[in-house]
Amino acid sequence: MRLKKASLAGAFFVSVLCAWPALAFCPAPSGLPVVDVQRVVDGDTLKLVDGRSVRLIGINAPELAHHGRNTEAFAEAARSRLQALVNDSGGRISLQLGRESRDHYARTLAHAYDRQGQNLEARLLEEGLGYLVAVAPNTALVVCQQAAERVARDAHAGLWGKSALQTPEQLVAGGFALVAARVTSVERNRGGVWLEVDGPLVLHIAPKSLAQFDLAGLQHLVGRNIQARGWVIDRSQRGSVKKGQARWMLPLTAAAMLEVLP
Question: pTM for this one?
């Protein structure tokens, strides 16, 4: 979500022609290693024959039932579609590791391509079966993945068939969310940058992520309506909410996770 060298209104999502074929989104570089898929875990995770679990970079698919939570809308469809894409590729895919190649669950972080060189995350995003996510430093394909998601948004496909946006007042649990709100203040301190919005939510950019943003541009967001996406944290469960502070916090991990609305 860099604000650098772009207008506030247009820095976050690129416009695309809906007629573009899927191959136009994030085509595969040459010479990538080919691996065998053992099974598709869900819409953004694969298990390989060599034992590795692969978390696809750039997409967050709806969650299947786990930890007492029900299966989310389009979760089964996302898993089924990813399985079909893997099957069409003969069960073999190419992997491009991220700059950060493992997450805190010890999963391999990578982009996946079928035997025709089509990026699997972009295919799912284009069909509305997941949301774009960007976590630095694994942001190399953000622009083309944004373009793929824009196709689904414009066509109201899949998850975009109805408004996915929530207001801060509508948040009831932690987890991934798309939130629309008006920025009321922007403050920087030793803890990073904090964007206060209307309602019980604050957006947070940690010090390690500040290089991803145009800090001067962020100041111009005061009074603007924005859409933020990411994994919301319930600070009340951590006992870290002080009087007057917002209950919910949404960390911004890269520039593409924030969009200025008209």
Answer: 0.87
